[in-house]
Write a structure and sequence with these properties.
It is built from 13 helices and 10 strands. It is of the alpha/beta class and 324 residues long. It has 2 domains: 236 residues, TIM Barrel, CATH 3.20.20.60; 55 residues, no CATH class. Helix 10 runs parallel beside helix 11 and helix 12 crosses helix 13.
């Protein structure tokens, strides 16, 4: 039995074991715990760049075996990424490896090469259907990838956007590995036969749809790249756009983009202070059991208290990351 047959058999067993038709929770808990304001793509075929990236301030490093590597360089890139992951300094970072697409000549060898090196995640491109998600998860199990390694999925085709709600629901299964979606905006524009515009008007509806599907099922979701490294104003504007929409962070193509990205996706000092005031107000004994309070001249509800706690948790995670 080859790996694809095994993957389908394991998938079918998983369906029966998990009971997909069971009632799902109304308010899913976010399944990811990793700080993901920035995820820096790094070509896998260049060992020097891999090590340089590991010294950057990016929250996540994506070591790329797919688009950034020419076909004839795939074996070399695989070896370089495996060697980098074996380095203790690199292994201490949150590293995700982007493998080649399911069904390609290289995918299984990619997964096999990094299986024992415990990356934080393995990112599969061209995930278009629930079936693709199941095959990816089964492949991770088949090659002995540790349970601590999460499944990340590229959402980068019109078909993936249309299937996003069904794919997202798989994140609610008890033994899911899927934690994060990455929007592939370049591929989306290509497949839509659209154009890149400064504020991405043609993409916004699809970004929002994928974001809603991710949030409905407790997934982390990252916005796509900005291609023009010199266009700092445009990059900052679309970072702010993505943050306003609700993305957790963004994928990057150059270390020079990290600072601007972090500024957009981190709470400001004022937001942190406002959040602390709200949390402290609800914690006062005289406010126990109250659902609405007047704080700083405005009405705040329990949902605002939850948002405030999330803001403080984000601020604490950022402070912790600075210490590492």
């Amino acid at each position: 039995m080859d790996v694809m047959q095994c993957a389908h058999q394991m998938r079918d067993e998983c369906v029966g074991r998990c009971g997909i038709s069971r009632e799902r929770p109304h308010n899913p808990v976010m399944t990811h715990t990793m700080l993901c304001r920035s995820a820096l793509y790094t070509p896998g075929a260049n060992p020097a760049i891999l090590l340089k990236a590991s010294r950057s301030e990016a929250d996540v490093l994506i070591f790329d075996l797919e688009d950034a590597v020419a076909p004839e360089s795939k074996p070399l890139a695989r070896e370089a990424v495996a060697s980098a992951l074996a380095d203790s300094a690199v292994a201490a970072r949150n590293v995700v490896v982007r493998v080649n697409a399911i069904g390609s000549t290289w995918c299984e060898d990619d997964v096999r090469a990094v299986a024992a090196l415990r990356p934080a995640g393995i990112l599969f491109p061209k995930i278009n259907t629930p079936e693709d998600v199941r095959v990816a998860q089964a492949m991770l199990s088949f090659y002995g990838v540790p349970q601590s390694t999460a499944l990340w999925c590229m959402i980068e085709t019109p078909r993936a956007i249309l299937n996003a709600p069904a794919m997202g629901q798989l994140a609610l299964e008890a033994d899911t590995r899927m934690s994060t979606w990455v929007l592939g905006t370049n591929d989306l524009v290509k497949d839509l036969r659209g154009r890149h515009t400064p504020m991405r008007e043609g993409l916004v509806p699809m970004l929002a749809f994928a974001l809603a599907a991710a949030r409905a099922n407790g997934l982390c979701v990252l916005d796509g790249v900005h291609n023009d490294i010199q266009d700092t104003d445009g990059f900052a504007a679309t970072c702010e756009q993505g943050r306003q929409m609700g993305f957790d962070g963004r994928t990057l193509i150059h270390p020079a983009q990290i600072e601007t990205c972090h500024r957009a996706y981190s709470p400001s000092a004022q937001e942190v202070e406002d959040a602390r005031v709200v949390v402290e107000a609800f914690a006062l004994p005289e406010n126990e059991g109250k659902g609405v309070l007047k704080v700083g001249g405005r009405m705040v509800e329990l949902l605002h208290a939850q948002i405030a706690r999330e803001t403080l948790a984000m601020d604490a995670a950022i402070a912790q990351a600075r210490k590492v």
